[in-house]
Write a structure and sequence with these properties.
This protein is an alpha+beta fold and 163 residues long. The chain has helices spanning 4-29, 66-85, 93-116, 137-154; strands spanning 36-39, 43-50, 119-127, 130-131.
């Protein structure tokens, strides 16, 4: 059975690879003006560029420091998560998996930010005029990983017997 650390970093690497692949395909084949409807009235593939953070916050900020600050904060978060995963064998399985998903997703978005100063988003969900902010594979894995961590925190733990 592979070492827990290898599994965790392997999951992160797979997330990073899937994120890079999907963003490369979008960059190559979908223009900023294209809308590819997958489920009418609910889900489209689009090509969006986000220079801000989650949900487009700070996207319109004129500050030249914005990208530098976002890169430094993202890199610091990556180092912390990678360090925690170094002891993956001591973590609960779902905690290690959640952290691995967060690590891979954060690495994918950090790569974009360093290389191009923006993150490519392409998954757009909506109902009529109500649109969820456009996102990508990395964002999805960060959310799923965060949910796994939250569920692990909320899980009832057995108390050791009093002796």
């Amino acid at each position: 059975m592979p070492d827990a650390r290898v599994k965790a970093y392997g999951i992160a690497a797979c997330v990073f690879a899937a994120d890079r692949l999907t963003k490369s395909l979008i960059d190559a084949y979908v223009s900023a003006f294209d809308v590819h409807t997958v489920i009418p009235g609910f889900f489209d593939i689009v090509h969006s560029q986000n220079r801000g953070v989650a949900f487009g916050l700070m996207n319109g900020s004129p500050s030249e420091l914005r990208n530098t600050v976002l890169i430094v904060l993202s890199a610091a978060a990556l180092v912390v998560v990678a360090a925690i995963l170094w002891r993956a064998a001591r973590l609960e399985r779902w905690t290690a998996t959640g952290l691995a998903l967060v690590l891979g997703g954060a690495a994918g978005n950090l790569y974009d930010r360093i290389m191009w100063g923006r993150v490519t988003d392409f998954l757009e969900f909506y109902i009529h005029d109500l649109h969820w902010p456009t996102f990508n594979v990395a964002d999805s894995c960060i959310v799923i990983g965060s949910c796994l961590l939250l569920l692990e925190l909320l899980k009832h733990r057995r108390e050791p017997a009093q002796t």
